Please model this.
Amino acid sequence: MAVDLTPDYAASLGRIGGGLLSDNLVNFENSQAGDLSFDTDLLYLDVTNKRIGINNYGSSPSELYLGLDQTLQSVNLIVDGYTYNNNWTFNSNNIVNSSNSAIYVTPLQSSPLIVASGVGVSNINLTSSGYTQPTLNGSINLNPSNAGIVNWTGNGQVNGSSSMITITGNVGITGNFEVDGTLTFGDQTTDTVAFTAEVNSSVLPSATLTDNLGASNNIWNTLYANTVTIPNITTTVLNAGGIQITGNTITSINPSNDITLTPNGTGNVKLNGTYPFVGNNVVNYGKGAFSLLSTGDGYWDFGDTSAAVFPVGTTAQRIPAPQIGATRYNTDLQYLEIYNGQTWTNSIGSNPPTSAANASDLGVIYDLILG
Model:
């Protein structure tokens, strides 16, 4: 039989094969109930508790207890390669930096990507779908430092029947801002809305004859509109074209302009429920009188050089129950007669001069008598 004197074979003479080592450990455990140590705890095998200690930590090793120049302690941890730092402490599910400084998790710069199912602190969790608040009714605050701002790029959506975004401070939006549903400005009367931009659409109430624009104690100053179509207007002063309506007074804004009431087409001007003006005529369609009244010492002056025409008719055409002072020209008697409250009398008195017909008759009689 040839003897293998190669270096590899010679080195293997001092080794214990895997199967042999396993059998020896089992037999040693059953017979000695003790542990194995190599080179004074350089490698310590806790056979009873199935633990391994390395470099001076063999007396009470954990699952894996490594004693190196820098301490790494781990319980129930399977490590397939690690970077060791003495400032880190792993305790249950916590990672603590004993130097009270920041902990940086830095991926390779060629591929800077950290993948985790979730990352969180005590009040907020970062998941693959966004931020969540683990505390019931807890808030999520975005607080930039000093003059910093929160930038939101892309679309945003708030979900939930009672969800609400509350912003304390100023909000600047570049681009379009779209709101679906009810938009409420402010929660008290001291809040204001200022429009610097122009309104580029119709402003409609929620329902007809329901909402108000202004109030009796909070009135708009001036309304500029080309056409106003409304059933009712309540205002102190209304300026419409050249007309101003103040209370129950209609005046012309320009003092040199006339006020003209001109109906359209065949319509007439209606006053107090009737149509007194028909063309150039003032017509009384009722049975009562049109009265020109004066509440003081004033009087009515027909300022003209032509004439004033009174009603003209026969004696039979007199009205049956005239008002005292009624005046008309009687074509039968050929004089102006006035009703004195009892009868119609001549306007010049109770003994009027003879009429032209009587005077003519008297002239004929006197010619016959006197020759």
